[in-house]
Structures are given as structure tokens and as C-alpha cells.
Design a protein that fits this description.
The chain has a domain at about 35-330: Aldolase class I (TIM Barrel). It contains 17 helices and 18 strands. It has helices spanning about 10-15, 40-50, 85-105, 130-145, 165-175, 190-195, 200-210, 230-240, 270-280, 285-305, 325-335, 365-375, 390-400, 410-415, 425-435, 450-455, 460-465, and strands spanning about 35-40, 55-65, 65, 80, 115-120, 150-160, 180-185, 215-225, 245-250, 305-310, 315, 335-340, 345-350, 355-360, 380-385, 405-410, 440, 445-450. The chain has a 9-stranded mixed sheet with strand order 10-11-9-8-7-6-5-2-12, sandwiched between helices. It has a 4-stranded antiparallel sheet with strand order 1-15-14-13. Helix 8 (about 230-240) links the parallel strand 8 and strand 9 (about 245-250). The two termini are about 35 Å apart.
């Protein structure tokens, strides 16, 4: 029977207090942060030496420009120069295409793979639609140089102010067939406090424009922000469902410094003086109130038959043929190789067996990235990370768990030669996760099934139970 109420996260934290992470410490990321570090030359050599034993591939293009900077945002981005938008977007289109061409010249296997999903993110990737010539060149480059599957999913990410009717039509004409829109709140006072540049009225119009495409799209929402409450957040979720949004993604406010992980920039609210002032003013909700917001939102979603796949991405029945987007199936459930372009972007190549994988992290400083691309011939890599043995199994398990799909025990026996239920260190971790109710066994015993309890704090569970394995 499908649950109709959210699991009690506060009770979960009382039973497993290691999962309690306060707002300013919350910076978990499911990308693996252990393994042997590689310098840029070693990382590039690993890419060139990779053989495409597994065919599926995901591509990510990072456009690091925004028309406004949200105060909580700690991703790699910069404000687009006022009055020079066309030149800036043209420049970044050139840089992304050049980086992609460098990969294509060095890695023959890229032309042998089967690209099942492409994601244009940021920053604000949909700003490219304001310069049709630039957007057309990037889409044409992707089509002309990569072997896209016949059902390749191409996602364009943006904000409500980017998805006017003309821009949405242009994106569809260029080949986008899925959209991701950052809304974060339907309460204007919440978005104004966070320095977002759109109104709830504009959001409703953009949802209508995306809905008319007949293609799937998600709306991102953040809980735990100043000026939010459980009542206002659940009302937002209810309204999105009433507007016909097929997928609602819910994220907890991160107020830690992703720059320390080399995957972001420091946010305004990360500034210690700003943070302390907001704390003194009582602007931030407590951890308990933050999770009450999530539970209230989940109650609404479950009541309307939405289900999370992957974790945090709640979709209406029938939104995706395989239960989740191609990018989630490729990137997380299967852990296919992913090549990422742009400043701060990170990807990996995965041999699909006991030989493990290599993560590639690009230069995270936008100026350094642009300078490297204009003065150097090499790939703009900051560092790499080689992950093998137990760590490769743990990293695969982590993404498999995040996908919120059945975790086949036979997969790990075939791929890594391990029995997750008997072989340590995996058996102890799985036993603990089963004991806490984060996963359960399928009726035939062949799979581990993530539960709603596990989905609720999946990043913390991944960090404490899987990424800690040695």
C-alpha cells in the first residue's frame, strides 16, 4: 500500500542522530570526495586512455551567467554584464564549444558512445535563448558531433523570466525536449529576500508556457528559507500541482561553502558577517521547522499520488516511461560516464567494472577558466580523482540509492564480484540501513528498495553509511 503521510524526519533524527546536520554545516554532495587525487595532466591522460566499454553517456554544459545572483546560491556563476549580454553569451558559447572540441580531438571514444541525455545548466543556461544565434550554434555543435540516441533527452534549465512563450518555442525548435525551472518559492516576499528576480505571477505564466509543450519539466523548490513556514511551503506545493506541474523537486537550503569542495562559489549568505547578522535577526528557520516544511510538502505530494524518483524529484504518475528522467537513469541509477563542460563542471568516466572510475573537476574560478581556454591548449581541468576497489562500489551504491530505484544485488556480484549482504565492509552498512528502515528487501530478495524514510535524508545517509566505507 502506498504511504499517504511523510515519514517523521524528527523521529528519524532522534533514532539516528549522526544524520542531524545543521543549516550552516549542510553541504553534502553525492559526488565522491575520496580516492587518489590526480593532477590535471594525469586526469587528462586518464580520459585519453579510456575505452568506451559502456556505451551510454551523459553530457553537461555549464553556462555560468545569471541576470541576478540569488543570495543563497553557491554554484559557479557570475552576473551577466549589463548592456553587453549578447557579447557575453556569445563568448561563453564559444568557450563551451571550444572545450567540447578539445575533448573530441583527444577522446576518440566520445564518437563511439551513445548519448542518452544532455543537460544545459548553470548559472542560467536559458539566457542563451535571448541570443538565438548563440543557442543555435551550441545545439548544432551537439547534434553534429555527438552520437545522440533516437530518444535522447535534452534539458534546458532556467528561471521563470527565461521561459516566455517565444523562448520556449525557440528551445523546442532547437531540440530541447525537457525543461527544468528554478522557482524556489511562490511567496514573493521569500524570493525578494533571497534576491530572486521574478514574481509569482511570472512563474505561473512560465508554467503555462512549459505545460503547453506537452514535454516533461520540473519546478525546483527550496525549503528552509527565511520567511517560509510549513503552511506556506505546503500551499506552494499544492498550487504547483493544481497548475499541472509534472515534477516538483524539493531541496533543503544549503548555507555552507561549496567552494571548499571545488564545485561552487561562496554565496552571499555564506559570508560570515552576513550570516551572523541574519542569525541575530532570527531570519533562518530552525532545523525542526525546516523539516516540518518538507514533511508538509511531502504530505501534499503523496496525497496527490506523486512519487520520488530520483530522491527529491517528485513526479506525477506516468510522467516518465521508465519512472524517472533519462538523465537520472544514466547519471545516477546506472552511473554511466558523464562529460561536463564549463567552469566548475565535474564529470567522470566509468569503466563499469572493478577498475573503477575517474572523476574530472574543471577549474572553478570563472576568470581562471576563461584565461586557460584563451592561453592554453589543454583541457581546463583543476584536478581528478581515481576511485577503485571498495570506494568504487561505495560510489556506485551511493548513486544507485539516490536514484530511488531497486538496487539489484546481482548487479554488484556481476560488476564488482561482491555480495553486498555477506561481504564486508558492505554487509555491515547494508544491515544498518535495513535496520533503520532506509532500505528494505524486495519480496523475492533480489533487490534492496530505498524507502521514503531513506529518501528523506538520502544525502546524509549516503555520507554516513556509504561514502565512509573503506
Amino acid at each position: 500500500m502506498t504511504p499517504t503521510r511523510s515519514p517523521d524526519i524528527l523521529e528519524l533524527l532522534a533514532n539516528d542522530p549522526q544524520l542531524r546536520v545543521d543549516r550552516d554545516d549542510y553541504n553534502y554532495n553525492v559526488t565522491y570526495t575520496a580516492g587518489s587525487e590526480l593532477d590535471p595532466g594525469q586526469a587528462e591522460a586518464s580520459l585519453q586512455g579510456f575505452t568506451c566499454e559502456q556505451e551510454a553517456l551523459h553530457l553537461y554544459f555549464h553556462v555560468p551567467l545569471c541576470s541576478y545572483i540569488c543570495h543563497y546560491c553557491n554554484f559557479v556563476k557570475r552576473l551577466i554584464p549589463e548592456g553587453d549580454e549578447t557579447n557575453a553569451l556569445t563568448q561563453w558559447t564559444d568557450l563551451l564549444i571550444e572545450e567540447s572540441n578539445r575533448y573530441l580531438r583527444r577522446c576518440e571514444w566520445l564518437r563511439q558512445a551513445r548519448v542518452e541525455s544532455v543537460y544545459l545548466g548553470g548559472g542560467t543556461a536559458a539566457l542563451l535563448l535571448n541570443v538565438p544565434e548563440a543557442a543555435n550554434r551550441l545545439f548544432a555543435h551537439i547534434r553534429d558531433n555527438y552520437p545522440l540516441s533516437t530518444d535522447c533527452e535534452i534539458t534546458m534549465e532556467g528561471n521563470p523570466d527565461n521561459f516566455g512563450a517565444d523562448n520556449v518555442r525557440l528551445a523546442m525548435d532547437l531540440g530541447a525536449n525537457r525543461f527544468s525551472m528554478g522557482v524556489q518559492s511562490l511567496q514573493d516576499e521569500v524570493n525578494e529576500f533571497a534576491n530572486r528576480g521574478h514574481s509569482s505571477e511570472l512563474t505561473v505564466a512560465a508554467i503555462g508556457n512549459l505545460g503547453e509543450t506537452g514535454r516533461p519539466f520540473n519546478v525546483d523548490m527550496i525549503y528552509g528559507q527565511p520567511r517560509q513556514s510549513a503552511e506556506s511551503f505546503s500551499a506552494d506545493i499544492e498550487r504547483l500541482i493544481d497548475l499541472g506541474v509534472p515534477t516538483v523537486t524539493m531541496y533543503r537550503l544549503r548555507n555552507n561553502d561549496r567552494q571548499a569542495l571545488a564545485i561552487g562559489n561562496r554565496a552571499v549568505w555564506n559570508n560570515e558577517n552576513v550570516r551572523q547578522r541574519l542569525i541575530a535577526e532570527g531570519a533562518f528557520p530552525s532545523l525542526e521547522d525546516t523539516y516540518r516544511m518538507r514533511m508538509a510538502g511531502v504530505d501534499v505530494l503523496l496525497g496527490r499520488e506523486y512519487w520520488p524518483a530520483p530522491a527529491c524529484w517528485w513526479s506525477a504518475p506516468g510522467t516518465y516511461d521508465e519512472g524517472l528522467p533519462h538523465l537520472s537513469k544514466s547519471k545516477w541509477e546506472r552511473y554511466d560516464s558523464m562529460v561536463a563542460f564549463g567552469p566548475g563542471a565535474y564529470g567522470w568516466v566509468n569503466s563499469g567494472d572493478e577498475h573503477g572510475l575517474v572523476q574530472i573537476h574543471n577549474l572553478g574560478n570563472i576568470g581562471q577558466y576563461a584565461n586557460h581556454m584563451s592561453t592554453e591548449d589543454s583541457l581546463p581541468i583543476s584536478f581528478g580523482r581515481r576511485i577503485t576497489g571498495v570506494r568504487a562500489v561505495a560510489a556506485t551504491l551511493a548513486f544507485n540509492f539516490k536514484a530511488n530505484q531497486p538496487m539489484s544485488l546481482q548487479r554488484y556480484a556481476d560488476q564488482f564480484g561482491v555480495n553486498l549482504l555477506n561481504d564486508e565492509p558492505f554487509a555491515g552498512a547494508i544491515e544498518a540501513m535495513l535496520g533503520h528502515g532506509y532500505v528494505e528487501r524486495s519480496d523475492d530478495g533480489a533487490d534492496l528498495i530505498p524507502t521514503l524514510l531513506g529518501e528523506a535524508l538520502h544525502e546524509e545517509i549516503i555520507s554516513c553509511y556509504l561514502h565512509s566505507l573503506e
